[in-house]
Amino acid sequence: MSKVKVGMVQMTCTANKQENLDKAIAQVREAAAKGAQIVCLQELFTSLYFCDVEDYDNFDLAEKIPGPSTDALQTVAKELGVVIIASLFEKRAEGLYHNTTAVLDADGSYLGKYRKMHIPDDPAYYEKFYFTPGDLGYKVFKTKFATIGILICWDQWYPEASRITALMGADIMFYPTAIGWDTTQDEETNEDQYNAWQTIQRSHSVANGLPVISVNRVGFEQEGRMKFWGGSFATNAQGKLLYLASHDKEETTVVDIDLKQSDYIRKHWPFLRDRRIDSYQPITKRYIDED
């Protein structure tokens, strides 16, 4: 296919897991009605962002993958003929949990999962308390409509992750994410943080000659202390913004992605072809010094 229609679901969540799943399914239906062929949901869409506190009770939110949520979404994917990208809290075994995205093809089949590799531990983002770093490596998934690469939130800051995923043959890069502002911050800080977040992901698009789809949650959580900043966006293969969501509204949008543009961009801006892979061995070091 030369073009694909991508649905982006930016929504608020509640403390009711079933309510959030039902809402996400309704938005997948809306996106499909608008022509979407691939629909991406935001990070951990079945719950509030629970990593703001270290609370053992929150482990009860986790589930097996495949499991109840993927079962429900597989039925919807098959019914609508759409690919669904679903970010979930995975219980792998007793005491072992991951931040994981499942990919469901347009025929309802389960294609597999990607486990988040980079795990933050910042104030209000205590993910290392909950999540074990992914051990599946970087992944691409050959869906009916495109070969897609999946990375999750904190992964978005790392050019190495996007490069490897691109080199594995991704046509489009997807980032389900959950990030926001501390509501005590000033507007200049807010703007700087959002611009950094968007810029780094657009740079992955430029460096790899790939469209990037970043889908973020929106709304106030953590008793009003955190405003998830929305701002979901889509770029073409040269990093040009094709769509930019608001910072304060739920949105279900469908964006046209030209898959053939990557070949054109990579021919004229040959960053992949000109890579000096013979010189990159030092990148595997933690820091380049004498120790």
UniProtKB/TrEMBL annotation:
Gene Ontology MF terms in the entry: N-carbamoylputrescine amidase activity
GO terms of biological process kind: putrescine biosynthetic process from arginine
Keywords: Hydrolase
Keyword Hydrolase: yes
InterPro entries assigned to the protein according to its UniProt record, in alphabetical order: Aliph_Amidase/BUP, C-N_Hydrolase, C-N_Hydrolase_sf
A matching Pfam family: CN_hydrolase
Annotated ranges, domain CN hydrolase: 4-259
Highest taxon, organism lineage: Bacteria
Record PANTHER family: BETA-UREIDOPROPIONASE, NITRILASE C965.09-RELATED
Record's protein name: N-carbamoylputrescine amidase
Annotated source species: Pedobacter xixiisoli
